[in-house]
């Protein structure tokens, strides 16, 4: 069991509203990377079917510089979050290939139900999501991860995909972290922000 060096006191779940049919001021999300803002702008530019784009409308070449930081989660199988794609930057952050794994396995058992619930909200409601996570590594280091995700439809038109852009950096106490010599072991969500893409946001108990 990895020893956590930073105790997490509170879990915040905030709601941020995306102005319908136009990009909201992304500064209100407090996004830490320009890539995340570019990713959000690109998703918003795609044609929609009932608020959600088809995956066939997504052109990787249009945002090729962001691809190393992207992941695709597939929720088509009950009780599982299948990682269909993980960019090289994300793989490096985990210290190993995570494609075709169950993303829930990276959470403590007692956190997995919530991780699945909040992911399902993105595709079912639908809405966007910003998640900030502390990543505990096998050596005890702690990394900070910020991901922004939006729903997508598969080739059959079903909304069961989430496209993410992730931005990971060492925690201040672990500035010398070397991803090549360490692996991610557990994830701890410290903040969630939901984004209104046209159908409102869920009413959740904090």
Strand order of the largest sheet: 1-7-4-5-6-2-3
Backbone CA Rg? 16 Å
What is the structural class?
alpha+beta
* Mean pLDDT over the residues: 80
Major sheet size, sense and barrel closure: 7 strands, mixed
Counting DSSP H or I runs of 4 or more residues, the number of helices is 3
Low-confidence stretches: 1-25
Count of individual beta strands: 7
Topology:
Elements: E1 12-16, H1 34-45, E2 70-74, E3 82-86, H2 88-94, H3 112-124, E4 128-137, E5 142-153, E6 159-170, E7 184-195
Parallel strand pairs: 1-7
Antiparallel strand pairs: 2-3, 2-6, 4-5, 4-7, 5-6
Description:
The protein is an alpha+beta fold and 206 residues long. Helix content is 16%, strand content 30%. The protein is built from three helices and seven strands; from the N terminus they run βαββααββββ. The protein has helices at residues 34-45, 88-94, 112-124, and strands at residues 12-16, 70-74, 82-86, 128-137, 142-153, 159-170, 184-195. Strands 1-7-4-5-6-2-3 form a seven-stranded mixed β-sheet, sandwiched between helices. The longest helix has 13 residues, at 112-124. The protein starts with 11 loop residues before the first strand and ends in an 11-residue tail after the last strand.
Give a brief rundown of this model.
The protein has 206 residues and is an alpha+beta fold.
Structural descriptors:
7 strands; alpha+beta; disordered N terminus; 206 residues; globular; 7-stranded mixed sheet
